[in-house]
Write a structure and sequence with these properties.
The chain has eleven helices and five strands, in the order βαβαβαβαβααααααα. It is an alpha/beta fold. The protein folds into two domains: about 140 residues, Response regulator (Rossmann fold, 3-Layer(aba) Sandwich); about 70 residues, Arc Repressor Mutant, subunit A (Orthogonal Bundle). Helix 1 links the parallel strand 1 and strand 2. The protein is globular. The N and C termini lie far apart (about 45 Å). The model has no long low-confidence stretch (mean pLDDT about 85).
């Protein structure tokens, strides 16, 4: 099902096989003046069919669903949305998960998801994650995403080179850009990075943009995964 939002509202889509879960999410999201649920899907096939042309701003995607699961749907949507829309907008996917799905979540992130949300997260955390991901700014900041990446750090660093300098993905980064990437991986916001490095927030935004461009990352989460995989950031560092 689809619905029409106001022009200045963030357009949200819900993908979950449980109708009551979707109804609860819709009630919370639609209670906010800047958010509006524009579509719902009960499985991955329906999500791909419905959302590919719709291109909502943010999708809340469940992992475990009958038929085509959320991982496959995330990969198909990310591929379909690889080219920017005529309006220049970028659709982003938040994976709904629990800690016992680590390996699946990592696959979803590599497929194109921009963040995580625990299914039992409080409503304010869900709303904050939607807004943050939509901005494309500090998507690593929501506590569920940061905790989950820390929880997954062993898997992320399993094949990391002994020396980060051996990873070609980092070769184009300047020393300052590496510093920014490390702080991003530690969950720092742009404001916090600016404070740590004694530079203006606008300068941090410039560095972050260059890091994403050089790494070919869709967003900060993708960049942080690269930081772990390359060995630039180690668990507990």
């Amino acid at each position: 099902m689809t619905d029409l939002p106001a022009p200045d509202q963030i357009r949200v889509a819900l993908v979950d096989d449980q109708q009551l879960v979707r109804a609860g999410f819709r009630m919370v999201i639609d209670s906010q003046p800047d958010l509006h649920v524009v579509a719902e899907a009960g499985d991955g096939d329906e999500a791909v069919r419905l959302l590919t042309p719709l291109r909502p701003d943010v999708v809340l995607m469940d992992v475990r669903m009958p038929g085509t699961d959320g991982l496959t749907a995330t990969a198909r949507l990310a591929e379909a949305w690889a080219r920017p829309s005529a309006a220049g907008a970028q659709s982003r996917i938040i994976v709904l998960t629990t800690f016992d799905l680590d390996e699946y979540v990592l696959e979803a992130i590599r497929a194109g998801a921009s963040g995580f949300l625990l299914k039992d997260a409080p409503p304010e955390e869900m709303l904050g994650a939607i807004r943050t991901v939509h901005r494309g700014d500090a998507v690593i900041a929501p506590s569920s995403t940061r905790r989950l990446l820390e929880h997954m750090s062993t898997a992320l660093t399993g094949d990391a080179p002994a020396d980060p300098a051996d990873d070609a993905r980092l070769g184009s980064l300047t020393e300052r850009e590496r510093e920014v990437l490390v702080l991003m991986a530690r969950g720092r916001s742009n404001t916090e990075i600016g404070t740590d490095l004694f530079v203006a927030e606008a300068t941090v935004k410039t560095h972050v943009g260059r890091v994403l461009a050089k790494l070919g990352a869709r967003d900060r989460v993708q960049a942080v995964v690269t930081a772990y995989e390359s060995g630039l950031v180690r668990p507990g560092s």
